[in-house]
């Protein structure tokens, strides 16, 4: 287990070729063995470029209005009712993930894909017992049907979009310039589309749940964020997103709140790596095949880098954190390619939620549960009411 920034940099960046990404075999079966997460080398590099192309700021800028429409669809349904924050954030993140994966074109197969994926998701963290009736067994059946459905969709888009594969990641993968020489197979495309939905779903929903928790618990901060967001016009939400990591000196308070949430909650607590050969590492011998886990949560909560780490304090991001001490999206060639979309997703929701609504936590049960990501107990039940202006 790696708990120092310098060691994490060696494993994830400078000597990343010695430590391949690895996941439990059941995860590979469910997501698909051709997904970007499970590879390194030329195949990974090619996929990383394609996936990043669909999540570049220039690519997702056109998604602002679509994400806003999703938010504006959800908010009225939340009014004057008690809701499970985590479950609602999962619904929101899932709808955004579907747009990022398939674009704005609503193929007839999309609803079927949604239902099958939701069935697949229920088995992600179950014991991998492939026996009739078990969650894992049901999930694997859904995965098989999902693959068949995606293959039909891929075939339709190949036939109907002679100039490209349509929108979203699917369109980028189908329109790969290298396809005439080395065309991605249907299974490679399907596995990576499912992988992106997986990566964009639970993690973002968990961060958003903590955002509401921390703003609820820090009333003065919520009011300050609201005042800032009241001055944000729709057309510069994208500019706000770009400022999140690019210019600390002029970073809006809202983005510092998001950063502090990412640090404090540390949804991605660690990542799996495996030594591809015997490695001599800072006086330690790591045999080939052994797992190496960079512990992001431990680094994010180290008082040497973040004084009083248990305190929620967005002002700590008024100065840039030391290199390799803040890695909410990982680091190196295997860092999250969809981080820009996640930032945008958080900003759009916070903009509309803080300026129009308030929320009160229901019940007095505090604490954390894991499923597998850390979230407030019971998914943070809250009652949402229109804001009195």
From TrEMBL:
Highest taxon of source: Eukaryota
InterPro entries linked: Cyt_P450, Cyt_P450_B, Cyt_P450_CS, Cyt_P450_sf
Pfam families the UniProt entry points to: p450 (PF00067)
Subcellular location, record wording: Membrane
Presence of the UniProt keyword Zinc-finger in the record: no
One record GO biological process: sterol metabolic process
GO cellular component: membrane
GO molecular function, one term: monooxygenase activity
Transmembrane domains' residue ranges: none
Membrane topology: Single-pass membrane protein
Gene3D superfamilies: Cytochrome P450
Keywords carried by this UniProt record: Heme, Iron, Membrane, Metal-binding, Monooxygenase, Oxidoreductase, Transmembrane, Transmembrane helix
Similarity-based family: Belongs to the cytochrome P450 family.
PANTHER family: ABSCISIC ACID 8'-HYDROXYLASE 2, CYTOCHROME P450 26
Name the record gives this protein: Uncharacterized protein
Organism: Gossypium harknessii
